Amino acid sequence: MLQDFPTVVPDTPLLDAIELDRDRLHQLSDEELVALAAEIRLFLLHSVSHTGGHFGAGLGVVELTVALHHVLNTPEDRLVWDVGHQTYPHKILTERRHQMHSMRQKGGLSGFPKRSESPYDTFGVGHSSTSISAAVGMAIAARQQGLDRKTVAVIGDGAITGGMAFEALAHAGHTRPNLLVILNDNQMSIGHNTGGLATYFAKIWASPTYIAFREGSKRLLEHVRTAWDLAKKTEEQWKSLVAPGMLFEELGFNYVGPLDGHDLPQLVHTLRAMSELKGPQLLHIRTVKGKGFEPAERDPVGYHAINKIESKPSEDAPPAPTKPSPPKYQDVFGRWLCDMAEADSRLVGITPAMCEGSGMVQFAEAYPRRYYDVAIAEQHAVTFAAGLACDGLKPVVAIYSTFLQRAYDQLIHDVALQNLDVTFAIDRAGLVGQDGATHHGVFDLSYLRCVPNMIIACPSDENECRQLLYTAYQHRGPSAVRYPRGAGVGVLIEQTMTELPLGQSVTVREGHRVGILNFGVLLPEAKRAAEVLDATLVDMRWVKPLDEARIVALAQQCERLVTVEENCIAGGAGAAVAELLAQRHIDCPVRHIGIPDQFIHHASQSQNRIDAGLTADAIIAAGTLDTVYNTTFVTELDPIKVSS
Question: Are residues 535 and 589 both part of a single domain?
């Protein structure tokens, strides 16, 4: 087992041969398939150490990936991955090995499956629990078109906790397309293996002999209702003794498993048999996240994704000067949550499977009876919070902006309509960088601003984040505080929690002719622009309610206003300002700095902001009175051009 990353590009003779002739992949012997898996694992370790990215999940499905591409005729046969964290081996095997050095970089490979990137990526993903729904659609499309095409969905034990996955399973059981669902259980969510007997029976249930006997018995006995019911119940009872598959059987799937997901010959044999069966099939495999790399096996959470491994400086080199890094916003939230819980016994913390990412580890350890991880179930998380609020508790829902989109109906109907006291701590608001368009949180101001009873805060730094979280929590009704991925600017965080005036802004700089209204963490860029323009700069703090008096006064004093936000321009904070001025019949030109009407693709977080025009230069151009402000994309990956 490897304990460190390969320092040189490993030899990969089988991968090289497959690149020259992909049909060779279907002809490999069991021994050669095992050797191929070893080559992929080595290459993956080497490439990700140079680029960073999702890591442990890919190592865990190397054997499964090899087996699937060996058995299936991809891309004609449809292979749908869930979430996509685990698809690096898939990309290596599908004509993208020599692009792996560009993973998650601007203009390079996406960290997730992406239809525009390769015909082998049959469905673009990034959020969880979507694979079975998409695969059911593909399987039914093949049936309606009379195509003999296989369809396979691969879903993890975490993703299958999402309600959408069970909706798709139920629909597949009803419509009965030819579909194979592979449940990759890497022991992060689902219970322990049931032992060797389960593996033995799994082999039997997947064998052609057993399938022929099962189907023959069905045809023979189905006309004798009592006999067939007895036979079916007997089979189910035997399966329930040795495997956790009864739920899937009841949903209409033929369940096989659990199998060792790292036993390549057994996987190939089972996949070949199951891919020929008619109707919905489910194969349950057990894998080890980070398989083959000892540090990742020991710490699957820590090695879920890694940063680029920097080369070590020589021993003779002088040590680089260091200074303390500003805290990440998720850590600011986590510290506030613990402090608030100590002060108020009614507080309950809720996360949809993002404890570490949302900074809730310390809270979960300190207050285990007040901490709820509801799994990948954002809709349930929000309505669960509503139920808690109905009966006197004060829930705080920690959720990524992009994932809150899934619970929009619940936020409106179950929380806001009833004016319930739920605080939403919205992490990863704005552009997140290398995870790309599926993970950018650039719509929340637009979709929250139109909801009655909701108040929305946009802190510009770490201390303001802490104080606005406290203020939102004190508000008796639904509230949201949105903050970005990554570290703050390094301001002093006051330990005292102070309730800030609702809907009141702060003037950062007094100037002339131009007014800049900043919403959120782009304040440093706005400051630089304000100095150049000699503009008045206001840190708005609140998107809803707006500081209407300050906006109106500034519009009456200035020749132009510029709004700045890390949210889409359509319907965002700037749109709220324009609506207010229109309602008051105030004739003042307003220019908007925000995300244009286009998806921003993966790059670094700083490059994302440049591409979207969220820079001091763009603000200066927008605020310069003798220019015509224009933002356009030349191509989907070109930066915005700001022209005069």
Answer: yes
For residues 474 and 489, the answer to whether their CB atoms sit within 8 Å is: no
* H-type alpha helices, 509-604: 523-533, 548-557, 573-583
Largest CA distance in the chain: 90
**Do β-strands 455-457 and 479-482 pair in parallel, antiparallel, or remain unpaired?**
parallel
CB within 8 A of 515, min separation 6: which ones?
A: 535, 536, 537, 538, 554, 555, 557, 558, 560, 561, 562
CA 533 to CA 513: how far, in whole Å? 9
Q: What is the 3-state secondary structure (H, E, C) of 444-465?
A: HHHHHHCCCCCEEECCCCHHHH
Mean pLDDT across the stretch 399-416?
Answer: 95
CA–CA separation, 563 vs 576, rounded Å?
A: 10
| Residue bearing tokens 């639904």 | 478
First to last CA, the chain: 59
Do 256 and 282 contact (CB within 8 A), yes or no?
A: yes
Q: How far is it, in rounded angstroms, from Cα 320 to Cα 83?
A: 39
Domain annotation covers residue 303: no
DSSP SS3 for 58? helix
536 DSSP β-pair partners:
515
Claim to verify: residue 284 and residue 385 sit in the same structural domain: no
Q: What is the mean pLDDT of residues 152-162?
A: 89
343 in the same domain as 213: no
Same domain? For 478 and 343 the reply is yes
- Residue 454 CB contacts under 8 Å (≥ 6 apart), including other chains: 416, 448, 477, 478, 479, 480, 544
| CATH number, residue 586 | 3.40.50.920
Both 96 and 37 in one domain: the answer is yes
Angle between helices 208-221 and 196-206 (to 10 degrees): 70
What is the distance between the alpha carbons of residues 430 and 163, in angstroms, rounded to a whole number? Answer: 26
Query: Does the structure show a pLDDT above 60 at 579?
Result: yes
In this predicted model, which residue has the larger pLDDT, 258 or 152? 152
Domain identity same for 157 and 230: yes
Would 51 be classed as within a structural domain?
A: yes
Residues 430, 537 within the same domain: no
Three-state SS across 267-311? HHHHHHHHCCCCCEEEEEEECCCCCCEHHHHHCCCCCCEECCCCC
User: Which helix (H) or strand (E) segment is 180 a member of?
Assistant: strand 179-185
In this structure, what DSSP letter does residue 416 have? I
Domain CATH number, residue 59: 3.40.50.970
Instruction: Note the pLDDT of residue 63.
Output: 95
Exposure on the CB side of residue 611, measured as CA atoms within 13 A: 24
The catalytic residue positions are 289, 378, 406
Report how far residue 55's alpha carbon sits from residue 42's, in angstroms, rounded to the nearest whole number. 12
Using only C-alpha atoms, the chain has a radius of gyration, in whole angstroms, of: 27
Distance, in Å, from the CA atom of 41 to the CA atom of 117, rounded to the nearest integer, reads 22
Q: How many CB atoms lie within 10 A of CB 625?
A: 11
Tally of domains within the chain = 3
Percent of the chain predicted with pLDDT > 70 = 81
Backbone angles phi, psi at 444, to 5 degrees: -65, -40
Q: Is 436 left (phi over 0), alpha (psi -120 to 50) or beta?
A: left
Tokens at 474, concatenated: 């004190």
- Domain region containing 131: 13-298
Reference 562, options 630, 620, 499, 611; nearest CA is 620
